């Protein structure tokens, strides 16, 4: 079914996940000539943990727990990216990175990201367990009749002159939303977007919640609290405007002639 295709063969298969012996990474990049997992753990060295092409354009690497070459532990919260090498001779100027060179890119399946406040460099973080949050409330049933939906962008849902957080919405607005008789909450700007002024419509990491609003655990606490008040929680998922980048600094590296995620 759809859940098996999207979750079991997608969300829980691609990206970086724990297995019995370490961290296993998978990325789908059918037009790449080579791929490598890089991060603080190996000094961002593209030769340290190369990926193997295992069929269908899927690249895979394993960082074992007993790897004695690691410069730092690969653990929850550590920074990483994927390095991709283009095919020489394709696209503008010979491939999407100048004739078969490497580009260090955000992984397409990143579940958690972080932007450095000084350099503004965006990196994927080794994710927490998808099932690690202790949910207290079950998702409420859909009420009879039509939904009364309260639409909100968390960044501007505060009276203070600052970017709002998931926790602000949970503590300050949820009680009022319930009192006004709404039955559902629609979150805008939910996905990670590097350009804040885009209002969330230039998505750079479609599977990661926007980091500027707080860690994923705060978003989970917001959803849990809304469920406790009988509110369904909906998220606006932006797919058609996923941002691409010639450098891969934020979104998928892409030029007019093709990129590693698209056949040239």
Query: What is the CA–CA distance across the termini?
Result: 31 Å
Rg result: 20 Å
Helix share, percent: 10-25%
Structural class: alpha+beta
Tell the overall outline.
Answer: elongated
Short recap of the structure:
The protein is 14% helix and 27% strand. With 264 residues, it is of the alpha+beta class.
What does this structure look like?
The chain is α+β, with helices and mostly antiparallel strands. The protein is built from three helices and 16 strands. The protein has helices at about 1-10, 165-180, 215-230; strands at about 15-20, 20-30, 35-40, 50-55, 60-65, 80-85, 100-105, 115, 120-125, 150-155, 185-190, 190, 205-210, 230-235, 245, 250-255. Strands 3, 6, 7, 8 and 9 form a five-stranded antiparallel beta sheet that branches. Helix 2 (about 165-180) packs parallel to helix 3. It is elongated, with a radius of gyration of 20 Å. Mean pLDDT is about 85; it is low at about 90-100.
List the helices and strands and how they pair.
Layout (H helix, E strand, L loop, with lengths): L1 H10 L3 E4 L3 E7 L5 E6 L12 E4 L2 E7 L14 E7 L16 E4 L7 E3 L6 E4 L23 E5 L12 H14 L4 E5 L2 E2 L12 E5 L6 H13 L3 E4 L8 E2 L6 E2 L11
Parallel strand pairs: 10-11, 11-14, 15-16
Antiparallel strand pairs: 1-2, 2-5, 3-6, 4-5, 6-7, 6-9, 8-9, 12-13
